[in-house]
Amino acid sequence: MFSFQYVGIGAFMTLGRFLIFFVIGLVLAFTIPQLSWLLWPLAASALVVLVQLIRA
Questions:
Q1: What are the DSSP calls for 1-56, one per residue?
Q2: Is residue 25 within 8 Å of 38, Cβ to Cβ?
Q3: With a threshold of 0.90, does the pTM exceed it?
Q4: What is the mean pLDDT of each run of 10 residues along the chain (56 residues)?
Q5: How far apart, in Å, are the Cα atoms of 6 and each of 15, 27, 29, 41, 56?
């Protein structure tokens, strides 16, 4: 009934969208103390994007 085709993260996540989500995440992590754990996933995702940009 439903079909799912994996096209990778590049199909919907552009650099601009990533930066918007990244900045929103940083603002939330710094303004709300309970969300300080969010800094680690943000740092990891920034590292992944940076490696992809260097390899491209």
A1: --------GGGT--HHHHHHHHHHHHHHHHH-GGGGGGHHHHHHHHHHHHHHHHH-
A2: yes
A3: no
A4: 51 81 94 94 92 86
A5: 19, 31, 31, 23, 21
Give the span between the Cα atoms of 53 and 56, in whole angstroms: 5
Tokens 């969208």 belong to 17
Give 45: exposed, middle or buried? Use CB within 10 Å, 0-12, 13-18, 19+: middle
Q: How far apart are CA 31 and CA 21, in angstroms?
A: 15
